[in-house]
Amino acid sequence: MRLTSSLLILFTSVSSFWACSKGDAPVLNPAPTNLTVTATINADKSGNVNFVASATGATNYDYDFGNGIFQTVPSGTVMYKYPASGNYKVNVIAKSAAGQTISKSIDVAVTVAQSLIWSDEFDVPGAPNPAKWNYDLGAGGWGNAELQYYTSRTDNAIVSNGTLKIIAKKRKL
What we know:
By secondary structure, this protein is mainly β. It has helices at 2-19, 138-141; strands at 33-41, 48-56, 60-64, 70-73, 77-81, 86-95, 101-110, 157-160, 163-166. It has a 4-stranded antiparallel sheet, with no helix packed on it. The protein has a 3-stranded antiparallel sheet with strand order 1-2-5, with no helix packed on it. A two-stranded antiparallel sheet has the order 8-9. The protein starts with a helix and ends in a 7-residue tail after the last strand.
């Protein structure tokens, strides 16, 4: 009886070991798979691009927008505003809970419309328009002991023929 139970224990141990061989062991926290990335560029030339990344088994997504800006997004969906026109290579890394990854890159071509922020046409002769221009006098050299002198004298800045002329003059102190 003792020999039979010893053989039974040996058989059970070998069977358990054989059943859990490396090829049959379950994989805990597998790497994400099936990563897809899409980009929808807004037609209004604002620089806004909507990105959607999806992967089986991913818990978050790291975006590299191709211009030095990075962002982690749990959902995979993000809107990013590019500040300038250009062709960008966007890289997305999908991560599992255990930190395993899969990545994919896509190219996006973004056009950002330029808009005028400020202008002066210099169309009125004389002193510069005080609503648009002022004089920084520096309170005696801005505190750095420089030898130049800042002035608000009208003969140093004048508008004529559609241009602003700033004239540096040697002056005795």
